[in-house]
Amino acid sequence: MLQDSIAGLEAEISAQELATAAQLDAFRIAYLGRKGRLADLFDQLKTVPAEQKRAVGQQLNQFKQAAQARHDEAQQALEAATANQPADAGYDYTLPPVPNALGTRHPLSLVREEMLRIFGRIGFSVAEGPEIEDDWHNFTALNFPENHPARDMQDTFFIAPPAPKSPIDPADSGAPDVPLLLRTHTSTVQVRVMETEPLPIRRVMPGRVYRNEAISARAHMMFHQVEGIFIDEGVSFADLKQTVYYFVNEMFGTDINIRFRPSFFPFTEPSAEIDITCLICKGKGCNICKYSGWVEIGGCGMVDPNVLENSGIDPEKYSGYAWGMGIERIAMLKYQIKDLRLFTENDLRFLRQFEAV
To answer: What's the predicted TM-score (pTM) here?
Structure first.
């Protein structure tokens, strides 16, 4: 009968030892839990004859309260006993210490800081700008006319395309007239500097940029650049070449060959690509340099007079040069890395190789 089961369980509970936290937890699960012995007895209450249910139910409730009180008293006694013990009671001081896992700077951060230090030694200070830009600073002010094919070289992530004007009220479109986009180069900061800062200007612009490109060992839709600009009276291409020579020698060493290859950029004229000896194959040819022995590290040129004029600078009086380099490309060459995707995959086996750096 159910009454006999209750009596037997009372004797079983009274005999339980509740001296440790583990015993207390086992007691709670076995007797007071949702699937414990008490819950099973309450389920059996429906089998008791109707005239006995009231008395048996009261007996079950009294038994449950007594079991809960036994649990609570044992828990309070255990807490009081542990409260009087020192915090390090039971700690084995002969155990070996747990080593602290020290992190390291990301290789892109290391290269970025080194590039800024090199240019800082010859007078270039850092300027930064927003990653979400408007069409003027990203394209038009840099001599990219609207609908010009030169824009195709930088397939772009637009995040707020211009909305059509309302047919009822052309002045109220409900959306901004100026399209916004993720900047495709840090040249946007050059425009902002030229628009707001007094001459002469000698600045470097590090930052993250975005282009809608297929991700591969050589390209990514998100990467980092360091660009620079120098505007003053009488600046020439010879000044630009000496700046590039200085940077390459400081970053890679004095035994690296450098060449300037004629190229086209809408915002500079004349323009050139900067190539150096491939440091991965030492000029012998590999998949990174496309088996040419040369690797492009950036582009450069004299600032186009239209760009100066768009920024409010008199091109008849002032001239300047600009350059841009990918931080990932510099890091790949410096640390002999053959796959650009490793920089963004967060593989600890790769990142831990730079702890010594």
So the answer is: 0.66
